[in-house]
């Protein structure tokens, strides 16, 4: 196989495709070091010393070379750090470093028929024909790739649990899952599993009501069996009372009752319960202007602070809506000081271009993390962007998002320029600066042509790719922009739905006033007339028109920048990525013309610069 040309090596160009050998994480670390040094042609002596520092490591100089010193998994991370630095021609020396988040997770939304919900990179890496059925070599390479950026837990199965996925926690599948866990463990990666909340009701207990002792016993027995096979399982991940999934509300019980019951079944084994907070009314009547979906999670959970057991972790999406291109940080992430929280990000590009359009996510994540206090979440998870495509992510450049996520999970901060430079130096050393520039320019282009000023959901319903200004306007999902002939947006200020009141005072006050609200979020928080004058003197509508014309041009510029790299890229890589940029340019034009025409037809106001809008 021509490694570089398929994208299969990802950023691990300093390692051969052959998988490492060994029975323990330390064996793998030594095997990777040997293989990496030889493939880099690096002659200095490198010693590996194990200590009791867990995942932390340091790299120092010795008389005749280097010493990588770290705990059980720390030495593996140290080896990858060392090889990556040498490959980038930087100093590998580092003072002691340890991860910011103790659990750094990928959530796959894979189904057992092999499909991937919101997957844009082929089929599942784990499941086929309702079986756990994977290519072992590929799982080693997947695990090595994740470990190289310190990811230490994965959930292979979808939060929407479709049969027979519920049976993963039974003897039917546990022996196969154990084998998967055994491979991943070599790389310091632990498993987490999603469960079907109502399973006791049809699998022996007759009900799933968390009030019933029989249901407690049922879960205790399940947990005992699962931990017999996988003693280091992180725990369960649950989507309950969300988008038609059953949950405690189904039985008239509270989320503390439901979550604590499951957490207590896991507690004897040190397990944790990750409880997703994506709870809102998905059957809203669009005529109802009182209900405001972004308020839902805070309203449901904030009053429950302090009532969850210690091993319950509330998993909260970064924004209050749903992974839109531009959202404020979820107000729930500022609240609940007495509750454990995990921040949930989405690497899969559901609303950000389906890994057809390029969208480097590190800036979006930086904007989230810099809004939040450092300790806002104790754990981090992200919906994965991986599938069985040769290049893992569909778009070769989308690998940069997985890389950046791992770096963020280690550091607790996002440094988009640094991560783009590192990734590009490793992956395309012959054109690193140009590729990093392309990545860094990509989110602004997409945001301009797809999502004006914090408005979301103007996408084609269900698939979430391409423009449809009223695709969600008269639906049940609670995601309305309410455009008419003079104005657009939902007033979420204290004069409207009161959503801004869910934030700590200093943020709430800032968001509440259109004059101080960050411009990029203006239409997330406010309803404004098209002739509202923006800070730079343009009207709101002119700004929308301009952004769409500019965004489409910027998409063309991304493609042109890539075309400049023809002689610097392996041929198939170049062609594969070029084909994506061609689709992106087409999509961007479609967005530009559909959205601009929509507003022109609504408002009757022409573009001040007389550019083409279809009447
Ligand atoms: C897994 C959005 C997505 C769904 C996803 C859901 C969730 O609504 O469109 O595909 O379901 O979020 O996060 O649970």
Number of helices: 17
Stretches with pLDDT under 50, minimum 5 residues: none
CATH architecture of the largest domain: Alpha-Beta Barrel
Give the overall pLDDT as a whole number. Answer: 97
How many strands appear in the DSSP assignment? 17
CATH top level assignment of the largest domain: Alpha Beta
CATH topology name of the largest domain: TIM Barrel
Identify every distinct bound molecule in the structure, by name, code or SMILES. 4-O-methyl-alpha-D-glucopyranuronic acid
Oligomer: single chain
The structural class is alpha/beta
Distance between the termini: 52 Å
> Looking across the biggest beta sheet, what order are the strands in?
9-8-5-15-14-13-12-11-10
Note the main sheet.
Answer: 9 strands, parallel
Rg over CA atoms, rounded to whole Å, is: 25 Å
Globular, elongated, flat, extended or rod-shaped: what is the shape?
A: globular
Number of domains: 3
CATH H level of the largest domain: which superfamily? Answer: Glycosidases
Strand content: 5-15%
Give a short summary of the structure.
The protein contains 17 helices and 17 strands. It is of the alpha/beta class and 615 residues long. The chain starts with a helix and ends in a 12-residue tail after the last helix.
